[in-house]
Design brief:
The complex is a heterodimer. Chain A is mostly helical. Chain A has 11 helices and 4 strands, in the order H-H-H-H-E-E-E-H-H-H-H-E-H-H-H. In chain A, 71% of the residues lie in helices and 4% in strands. Chain B folds into 2 domains: 152 residues, no CATH class; 247 residues, no CATH class. Chain B has a two-stranded antiparallel sheet. Classes of the chains: A mainly alpha, B mainly alpha. At the A-B interface, helix 2, helix 3, helix 4, strand 1 and helix 9 of A face helix 1, strand 1, strand 2, helix 11 and helix 18 of B.
Chain lengths: 311, 512
């Protein structure tokens, strides 16, 4: 029971990270109907930017708490801003010129961008993985003793709380942004009919760019969380995290915001329970198999709408 | 150009270039300028501001030149002039990088090229210069880029008149050359000196074969397969496991490996081929990874990360390439040399590749191949004409997979050792890059792309690290610049002689 609860907590925290990345896939798919294959690598870039700043500012757990929180907040904001620039540039260079090209073209450039980003970071930052000391440690013990008698302890770390709270806040903010602001209205208009939207005065290019920027900013948050949670990153993390987050987006119903979050949580839980109860080696196979199964049997996802094919 | 026009253009260009440079600065100052290093007591940072400065300056200058002379077709500048400016600016950028690399040692930590000395970079500059000259000559002589540069660049115009004689005799010439390669090399460099070049030729031919195999799926049928390497792996492991557990030889296993890979293609393809193009790509990627992870973790059966070694070498009608009695050299009364086996392997892969090409060319003329091409152009139109799209896709997928399997078993027999390391996603990406670069659906394009990309990087060995970066960038640039392929354009096998305004991308725009 304790073991189960602990896995549940871990799964929710991991799932929140996947959910944040999945939003990037889902909004981009919703608005221009393409899989932004490079999004996982944008997440990786965000993670690296956060790492560089953590090292440059010499952030350690020994800092006074108030200062630590302030510095981390600053790092978060700068990471979001710079990762957004990366996201914007990728869209500008690789996707915008192909807006009306044949369907495979943007997908191929997306793969090219993904390879480029990965190898750029590998060249500029080195291929070895980068460890950082844990910055936020400690937590609540919810159940069980102190663990000395060998029984399982259920722990909810401060970091997990931070991840879950952060994700919830961002989700609420993002939903409000889509539903209440004029930018969100423009996005929904572009999603329905791009040509019509441009006819009634929506700046389509700008809206699409901003969608990429928002997706990248959320991926940057996920990148910082990932860095803090695992404490070690390398240039290849974007590939697996990207595929899993994409699986989450598809599982929840691609194009749907709550779907992305739900899918992220489910994927996080499945992965954690799979490694907890079955085998760690095959946890990636589990994620890939879910992707294949969902796409084959439930292509519209849990919360998505079935897609109508237009001629 | 009057002065006011020039002035306003200069102003606009400066502003645009300034923005581009600022963006570059924002992107590069941390990722490129601050290198995290593992040192005592955690990570430390190694600052490389010069790299950031160089990148920013190059982007600013390049963008300014492009804005001023290349991208604005109005005005009196001719296409040739703009081409020359473009070429010169590329050249200038290369030279700047070269100087930065030499003088400042900017990238010394990033790249190993400072150890290689200046030769590598000098060669790159020379190659770049030659490319520019060739482009200009081609432009002046044949008008390859079309009448207007911007038009010509955005829509590839196949200049059939120029390549028609080449198209007729080129393949034959290439074939004769390919057959002669071992003899030329050996008579030139001797048996020992030519070995590494023959090995390289075998490698290039393997990629050509893989590229042709993938071309059936991506180029002809228009299905993006990101897990092609899975079938390569199935072929290689089929042979390795069959020989390990049942003691079968290469010639027995070659067809089996192809059939098995083809069957895998059908089994994997059947459920997913109903999906739309981009979903298909992701699912094939997932399958590729699943197969690799299983190979990696099923230790008892596949040897896991240790791989399988001691895979038997191919024989020539039962004659082994070994020293002593009954070996190839003994029977044919030659002095024993290890080069015999290399030459044999070379002809083997040449034969396999040519078979792949031959089958593809023939299939393209069958109803099945025509259906593939039709499917690539417009799936909905295909369906309304009564083509069974699932079966058509499946046949393309399985045929491509089968050739992947053949190539895989050749790979296994050539290496004598295989492990899951050889079958990562990056391998799929390399093959895909070759197909994209060569022009989707073009057979000769694949050859040229494989020779340039695989062979070229083998010569600039110290730049190997940059290989995937260049592949990725080229994929983006080519898709944006010439989506039908840089080196060669694909032509539909059959079509109306008169060009009409109907094509898949225009149908989307409502013009069809």
């Amino acid at each position: 029971m304790e073991y189960f609860l602990q896995q549940l907590i871990n799964g929710v925290a991991l799932g929140s990270i996947y959910g944040l990345i999945a939003i990037g896939y889902t909004v981009v798919y919703g608005i221009i109907g393409m899989i932004n294959f490079a999004h996982g690598d944008i997440f990786m870039v965000g993670s690296f930017l956060a790492l560089i700043m953590v090292v440059a500012f010499g952030v350690t757990a020994a800092m006074p708490l108030a200062l630590l929180v302030l510095v981390l907040l600053g790092i978060l904001i700068v990471t979001m801003a710079l990762t957004s620039v990366w996201g914007w540039t990728v869209e500008r260079l690789a996707y915008r010129p192909l807006r009306d090209s044949f369907r495979l073209a943007p997908l191929i450039t997306a793969i090219g961008m993904s390879i480029t980003l990965q190898n750029f970071v590998q060249l500029s930052q080195g291929a070895r993985n980068k460890p950082v000391q844990p910055l936020i440690s400690g937590g609540f013990t919810l159940m069980g003793g102190d663990g000395s008698d060998g029984s399982c302890v259920v722990q909810l770390s401060y970091l997990q709380i931070l991840i879950i709270v952060m994700t919830t806040v961002l989700m609420i903010g993002f939903t409000l942004l889509i539903n209440k602001t004029s930018l969100g209205r423009a996005q929904r208009a572009c999603e329905q009919d791009r040509k019509m939207a441009s006819l009634i005065g929506v700046n389509v290019d700008r809206t699409i760019s901003l969608t990429f920027v928002m997706g990248a900013a959320l991926a940057a948050v996920a990148g910082l969380m990932f860095l803090l949670y695992y404490g070690v990153i390398d240039f290849y993390i974007g590939f697996l995290a990207g595929v899993k987050a994409f699986t989450a987006a598809v599982l929840g119903g691609i194009g749907s915001l709550p779907g992305a979050m739900l899918g992220g949580l489910l994927i996080g839980l499945i992965e954690t329970f799979w490694s907890g109860y079955f085998s760690v080696e095959y946890k990636d196979v589990a994620a890939f198999s879910i992707l294949a199964i969902v796409l084959i049997f439930l292509p519209e996802g849990l919360l998505g709408k079935p897609e109508v094919e237009k001629v | 150009m009057s002065d006011t026009v020039f002035e306003s253009r200069l102003k606009a260009s400066l502003k645009d270039s300034g923005i581009a440079a600022a963006i570059t600065l924002a992107m590069a100052f941390m990722l490129a300028g601050m290198h995290t290093q593992i040192s005592i007591g955690g990570l430390s940072i190694d600052y490389r501001w010069a790299a950031v400065a160089v990148a920013t300056v190059v982007v600013f200058a390049g963008r300014l030149l492009l804005n001023m002379y290349v991208w604005r077709p109005e005005g009196s500048r001719t296409v040739t002039f703009r081409m020359v400016v473009l070429g010169l600016s590329i050249l200038a950028a290369t030279v700047i990088f070269y100087i930065a690399n030499q003088v400042l040692g900017t990238f010394s930590g990033v790249s190993p090229s400072e150890a290689a000395g200046s030769d590598e970079w000098l060669w790159i500059v020379i190659v770049a210069a030659l490319a520019v000259v060739a482009a200009v000559v081609a432009k002046v002589l044949f008008g390859l880029a079309g009448t207007s540069l911007s038009k010509g660049l955005s829509k590839a115009v196949p200049s059939r008149a120029v390549f028609a004689p080449l198209g007729k005799w080129g393949p034959l010439l290439l074939g004769v050359l390919a057959v002669d390669v071992p003899f030329i090399l050996i008579s030139w460099l001797g048996a020992r000196g030519s070995r590494q070049y023959l090995d390289l030729a075998i490698l290039v031919l393997t990629y050509i074969m893989l590229g042709w195999g993938l071309n059936i799926v991506v180029g002809l049928a228009g299905l993006l397969d990101l897990g092609y390497v899975a079938f390569y792996a199935v072929g290689a492991y089929s042979f390795a496991l069959l020989s390990q557990y049942f003691g079968l030889g290469f010639w027995m296993c070659l067809p089996l490996a192809g059939i098995l890979a083809g069957c895998w293609g059908m089994v994997l393809g059947y459920p997913v081929l109903r999906l739309r193009g981009d979903y298909l790509a992701i699912v094939t990627l997932a399958f590729g990874e699943i197969i690799r992870v299983i190979l990696l973790n099923w230790y008892d059966f596949t040897g896991g990360p240790d791989g399988i070694s001691g895979i038997p070498r191919p024989t020539l009608f039962g004659i082994e390439f070994k020293r002593g009695d009954g070996g190839f050299a003994d029977i044919f009364d030659l002095d024993y040399s290890s080069i015999h086996r290399i030459i044999f392997l070379y002809y083997l892969i040449l034969l396999l590749a040519l078979v792949t090409n031959f089958v593809t060319m023939r299939l393209r003329r069958l109803p099945m191949g025509r259906a593939w091409e039709a499917l690539r152009e417009d799936e909905i139109a295909c369906r309304s004409l009564g083509i069974n799209t699932t079966n058509t896709k499946l046949s393309a997928f399985a045929t491509g997979a089968m050739f992947g399997g053949f190539a895989g078993s050749f790979f296994a027999t050539r290496q004598g050792f295989i492990s899951p390391e050889s079958f990562t996603f990056m391998e799929s990406a390399v093959i895909l890059a070759i197909v994209v670069l060569g022009g989707l659906g073009s057979q000769i394009g694949v050859v040229i792309a494989a020779v340039v990309m695989i062979g070229g990087f083998e010569f600039f060995r110290d730049l190997q690290e940059y290989r995937m970066l260049v592949f990725g960038l080229l994929m983006v640039i080519i898709m944006v610049w010439k989506p039908r392929g840089l080196i060669s354009t694909r032509k539909p096998t059959i079509g109306l002689v008169q060009r009409t305004g109907i094509s898949a991308d225009m149908v989307q725009e409502g013009q069809g």
